[in-house]
Amino acid sequence: MAKRDFAFGKENFILIAVAVTCIVFGFLLMSGGGSGDSTFNPEIFSARRIVVAPIVTMIGFVVMIFGILRNRKDKEIA
């Protein structure tokens, strides 16, 4: 049986999975109730939504790029 040659190694897939989890978690931190036409909710300006969540999301995107561009260690040069 021939060995399959994937573009990504196990470490790449782990990094990509961590990145997707981080991005989803960042978007979940940004979500929540907003202000309506007749009510104002000051929670839309909380530090969690405007500072923490974008930082977590950007970390996820950086890890995703790193996971895609990282070379496999077991890759043979032929």
What is the compact description of this entry?
The protein is mainly alpha-helical. The protein has 2 helices and no strands.
Report on the architecture of this protein.
This protein is mainly α and 78 residues long. Helices cover 56% and strands 0% of the residues. The protein has two helices and no strands. It has helices spanning 10-30, 47-69. The longest helix is centred in the C-terminal third of the chain and has 23 residues, at 47-69. The two termini are 20 Å apart. The relative contact order is 0.23. It holds the Pfam family DUF3098.
List the keywords.
mainly alpha; 2 helices; elongated; 78 residues
